[in-house]
Amino acid sequence: MNNAENDAEQKTILVAVLLHLGYNIQQLWIINNTFYIGGNNMLVNAKDMLDKAKAGHYAVGQFNINNLEWTKSILLTAQELNSPVILGVSEGAGKYMTGFKTVAAMVKAMDEELGITVPVATHLDHGTYEGCYKCIKAGFTSIMFDGSSLPIDENVAKTKELVAVAHNLGMSIEAEVGAIGGEEDGVVGQGECADPDECKSVADLGVDMLAAGIGNIHGKYPANWAGLSFETLDAIQKKTGKMPLVLHGGTGIPDDMIKKAIDLGVSKINVNTECQLSFAAATREYIEAGKDNEGKGYDPRKLLAPGAEAIKATVKEKMELFGSVNKA
Ligand code: 13P
After folding, report:
1. What residues contact 230, with CB distance under 8 A and at least 6 apart?
2. What do you get for the CA distance between the two ends of the chain, in Å?
3. What is the pTM of this model?
4. How does pLDDT run across 133-172, given as a tens digit for each residue?
5. Which residue of 60, 64, 279 sits with most ligand 1 atoms within 8 Å of its CB, as the best mutation to test the pocket?
6. Domain-by-domain residue ranges, the chain?
7. Which CATH architecture has domain 41-322?
8. Is 125 labeled as catalytic in the residue annotation?
9. CA of 92 to the centre of ligand 1 (A)
């Protein structure tokens, strides 16, 4: 039996076993003798929602998750506002939650148990090459390969490979050109502006969305921040046409700049720090008011409730600003 026949036979056996176990298999893919299963959940990839956002001149929020409370707050708000949503998971947050398999299983189960009907994608944020494969294996619906620190040739080669793998599994993929400034989970960037020609060549590799540095920074913006470079964004959008563009570092960008960025082709905006700040402020208020010492106020279901509500309020505010309400 040759390799192809052997793979086909193994695939047939595996499909039979998985169907017997009740899996709903839409995609099966073999890479180096490892099986990857896609489409086994209610979650969707980010392509359709972002193509619609680009055409409709609004943006879908990517809200990063850190734990169960974060996930629940974001899913419930998306459902309440009838908005599509992308749950971002950095490699650090994935590790914190004990691994991408835990995250994928938690989101899938929570989406079902809460009866969420709006489109939800699970997306790796700033993935390494290895991290992308881990998320593919874990059953994420979308990945970001951040090859921005690699020489452009290597970034292109790895992006190309991951585009083929992701698309064969029905997943969407984001690439990055021009480092995003600031620090997120150990990923440090200088906030440079991307070269529009490089953006065009990476967009042509078939990615579904493109993150391009336009002076944006992860975390809080410094008082002397120069603002977004709309000139760069405009040039990138002209070169990349219909490609949905991604704005990282959504925390603290003034509303008028967000609106202008959406006008110039931004269809996905990432927010992480702002939810962390609202959660921390609400939790601090609860503890400083001594509420953890009142009755059973120390119960995590009570102690974490104000923070969870604060995340909901932040997500709601962003979805309204981004224009994704009632776009599910
Ligand atoms: P902020 O933490 O600045 O909101 O950025 C989030 C982000 O870009 C995730 O990739």
Report:
1. 214, 260, 261, 264
2. 49
3. 0.87
4. 999 999 999 999 998 788 888 988 999 999 999 999 999 9
5. 64
6. 1-38, 41-322
7. Alpha-Beta Barrel (3.20)
8. yes
9. 13
